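Shipment paperwork, digital attachment
Item: protein structure file
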Amino acid sequence: MVQLSRFFTVLSVATVSLALIVGRDVAKVKADIATITTQVTTLDNAIQAFPLSGGSLLNALTIHNTATGLITTLNGATTDVTSTGPLGEADGRAVLTSVEAIQPVILDALTNIVVKKPGFASLPIGGLPALILQDLKNLKTATSAFATALVANAPADLVEEAKTVQTTITNAFDPAIAAYS
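Attachment content:
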C-alpha cells in the first residue's frame, strides 16, 4: 500500500510538472507570435515609408535588417511550436486568432514591396533587388515552416482553418518573389 501511495505521488508530481512545462511552452509560442506581430508591423511600416524614388541606402538596409530579424524569430518560433506539441482547444484558437490578426499586415507588406521595387532599383547599389529577393525567399521558407508547425499542432477542428491561413500567407509571397526574380 505504501509503494502504491508513493507511485501515485510520483505520478501526480510528474503530471503537474508536465502540465506546467506545456503551459510554459504555449506561453512561449504566444510570446513568439506577439514578437512576430511587432516585427511584421515594423517591416510593413518601413516598406510603406520607403519612397518610389529618392530613397536612401540606410532605409533600404533597415528593411533588410528587419526582414533578417523576422526570419530569425520565425525560425525560433517554429522550434518552440514543435517542442510544445499539440495545442488544446483554447490555446489553439488563441494562437490561430493571433496569426489571423497579422495576416493583413503580412499581405500589405508583400504588396508594398512589389510597388516599391522601382525605389530599390534606383538606388546606387545594384545588388539591392537581389538582396530583397533573397530576403523574400528566406521569409517564405521561415513563414511556411512556422505555419506548418502550427497546423501540425492545431486541434483537429481548427486544422482546415489553419491550413487556409497558411496557404493564403505563403502564396502571397509568390508575386513578390516573381517581381524581384
